[in-house]
């Protein structure tokens, strides 16, 4: 599979009534746009090709789903009043765009040196990031959205799967509700976990659909969490960061781990 074949495959699967598909040869990007509102989604073909070599057809299915749901979200209206339970924070990388393609700023704030917090309106199978235009239309302040979003984040379930590797314990939160990485903002949950651990608490949010918590008890544990984070990051639908974080006294500190063992 190469970019040319991937382009043909995606054009065939994403074409439809009231849609315009254009190709940027210089950037090797495909843009799918709705004629109804002029809004669209741009995807980078090399990244999808790389995922295809790992996931095969599943990689194409995922990007098609992402584009379809994203376009539908852009077409559906957003109403914040009386829909407070649909507002959530989401974690993104610091390189994530700060504004929509129309130049309207997203509501966001700093989190760590590697991550930022954005705010989203849940639409069922997908969500839409809240921007300045939505806030002005609804008459909502940023502080109100942030307060409600954080409250909703604390109400999310926190089921964990446990795995023991080389004397270290790893916990995985993977509900696939779109807000797995968001759980890193729930300090009450993190503090409860910290009390249960006997070693150093290390966390990772390599992509939006997983939160990894590690109880590191030896040097091998640092190598393992680094390899896990990199693997999840490379295969994630919405990558965030391949770095891990120390959790001490309620604070997150990014750490770079030089792996010594394969």
The total of helices stands at: 7
Task: Give the biggest sheet.
Answer: 6 strands, antiparallel
Helix share, percent: 25-40%
Radius of gyration: 20 Å
Q: Roughly what fraction of the amino acids lie in strands?
A: 25-35%
State the strand order across the main sheet.
Answer: 8-9-11-10-12-13
- The mean pLDDT is 89
H-E order: HEEEHHEEEEHHEEHEEHEE
Mass-distribution shape: globular
Number of strands: 13
Distance between the termini: 29 Å
Instruction: Indicate the structural class.
Output: alpha+beta
Contiguous uncertain segments of 5+ residues: none
Characterize the structure shown:
- By secondary structure, this protein is of the alpha+beta class.
- The protein is built from seven helices and 13 strands.
- The protein has helices at residues 3-14, 45-55, 57-75, 132-138, 142-154, 187-196, 219-235, and strands at residues 19-24, 29-34, 40-44, 87-93, 108-110, 115-122, 127-129, 161-165, 168-173, 200-204, 211-216, 244-248, 251-255.
- Helix 1 packs across helix 3 (57-75) and helix 2 (45-55) packs across helix 3 (57-75).
Give the key terms.
alpha+beta; about 260 residues; six-stranded antiparallel β-sheet; about 35% helix; 7 helices
Helices and strands in order, then pairings?
Elements: H1 3-14, E1 19-24, E2 29-34, E3 40-44, H2 45-55, H3 57-75, E4 87-93, E5 108-110, E6 115-122, E7 127-129, H4 132-138, H5 142-154, E8 161-165, E9 168-173, H6 187-196, E10 200-204, E11 211-216, H7 219-235, E12 244-248, E13 251-255
Antiparallel strand pairs: 1-2, 2-3, 4-6, 5-6, 6-7, 8-9, 9-11, 10-11, 10-12, 12-13
Helix pairs in contact: 1-3, 2-3
